[in-house]
Amino acid sequence: MSRQERSVDWDEDSLLEVAADPRETAALVTVTGSTGTIGSELVRLLSAAGVGTRALHRDVRKTRALPNVTWVHADLDDARRLRVALDSTDRLFLLTGNEPDFARTQIGVVRAAEELGVKHIVKLSALGASDHSTSTIAREHWAVEQALLSTRLQWTILRPHAFMQNWLGDVAESVRAEGVIYAPIGDGRVPFIDTRDIAAVAAEVLLHVEAHVGKKYVLTGGEAVGYVDLAGALSEATGRTITYRPITLEEARARLAERGVAAAAIDAMLAIAAYQRAGGPTATISPSVERLLGRRPRTIRDFAHDYASHFV
Questions:
Q1: Among 34, 49, 127, 253, which residue's CB has the most CB atoms within a 10 Å radius?
Q2: What is the pLDDT of residue 27?
Q3: Residue 253 lies inside a defined structural domain of this protein
Q4: Is residue 224, in this structure, part of any structural domain at all?
């Protein structure tokens, strides 16, 4: 069976066979978080580039057959299955959700990767990752970064700003229902980045790791925009009149709680919103995307055009 035909989900016994299959060992790239907005696009790009890719996932319903891709069901907190899933990996893309205590999971992956001889890790971190951030998300990313830097592994760290695709959740919901965008950042301006550009940068790094060893890249869009700008771009793309209504941090807390978001996650999200509301460093534009990809980052108008159907 060719690698092109191995885009299937594996149970535990089959996973052991995959890890031992020599056809899966040549310059193998393993991708965690492979079914999310960044990971799914990254897997698509690696597939198109003809790179042997092992895509780790938790939900087989989110996978799709792609040339050169082997889908592997893996629990990153299960030490045995993790070691099997990482076996023979040459380059690893490290991404998980931002659930509380995700640093523990990611640090476990880093340590297992070092023990198994993985050569290079590309860590998806976050803008503002530090040990003194008021956001627990930023502090946890910092902890993982420090764990990675303490290993013998080669590494590249990507620190993207806020994702445009996050608007496909509650923002799209309120636009569909009311034609209104609610956000607690006031007149703050942010160089939001399209996750497809993050994935493209990750693919560039994974395909040419030798050029990116020991580099930390801040990734932003090409312009700092506010929600008035987003409302205008969505109005243009959908033909609807969409407006922005600023809300307070406490109003945002109540809305998130009503949606069932955990209190710890709300605190982390609102800490980031407070930074964005204050402006300053959070409005700074990085040239990294254009330098690495040789093109301008996607704009909010590009996003609005491509995702218009989500807002009507």
A1: 34
A2: 56
A3: no
A4: no
Place of tokens 């093109």: 295
- Spatial distance between the Cα atoms of 126 and 124, rounded to a whole number of angstroms: 7
The most distant pair of C-alpha atoms in the chain lies apart, rounded to whole Å, by 57
Distances (CA, A) of 42 to 49, 272, 284: 11, 26, 26
Alpha-carbon span 277 to 231, nearest angstrom: 17
Tell me, what CATH number does 82's domain have? 3.40.50.720
Number of domains in the chain: 1
287 contact partners, CB below 8 Å, separation of at least 6? none
pLDDT of residue 280: 82
Q: How far is CA 109 from CA 38, 75, 102, 241, in A?
A: 19, 11, 11, 47
Q: How confident is the model at residue 20 (pLDDT cuts 50, 70, 90)?
A: very low
What distances in angstroms separate CA 37 from CA 111, 156, 174, 204, one per listed residue?
26, 20, 21, 17
The answer as to whether 54 is a domain residue is: yes
Average per-residue pLDDT for the chain: 91
Calculate helix-pair angle for 136-149, 263-278, nearest 10 degrees. 90
Q: How far is CA 224 from the centre of its chain?
A: 20
Task: Provide the 8-state DSSP code for 76.
Answer: T
Range of the domain at 22: 3-160+194-219+284-297
